[in-house]
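Ticket #4471: structure export looks truncated?
Reporter: QA, pipeline team
Priority: medium

Steps to reproduce: submit the single chain below to the structure queue and open the exported record.
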Amino acid sequence: MEVINAIGRRKAAVARVYLSDGKGQITINDREYKQYFPNEILQYVVLQPLNLLNVADKYDITVTLDGGGFKGQAEAVRLAISRALIKIDPEFKPKLKAEGFTTRDPREVERKKPGRPKARKRFQFSKR
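Actual output as written to the record:
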């Protein structure tokens, strides 16, 4: 099998995933994924699509991550892995879609408006 690639995004994070046949090794920015995401919840998020389809030990995954915070990055990796798995076998799509792993979360940070301290917050009103 040749290398399958896919992109996942979440907030400001962009994950480029390269999937190839292997023994289940996941490398993120030249580091092992458990070292990159020390938090067990984020490790679980990254592995969700692989565990759902019972293919965690069939593919080696290399990820290039850029931007965002750790939660956004983990969810971007999850989306990218899901998209790559669908490219490998389109029959995976219904299961992944049912769990919501194929949906790009469109929520972004709202921009700061002029004359305000934040996007919606207002300075304290003073009558006198």
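Status: closed, not a bug. The export was complete when the record was re-opened. Leaving a note from the reviewer for reference: The two ends are 73 Å apart (CA to CA).
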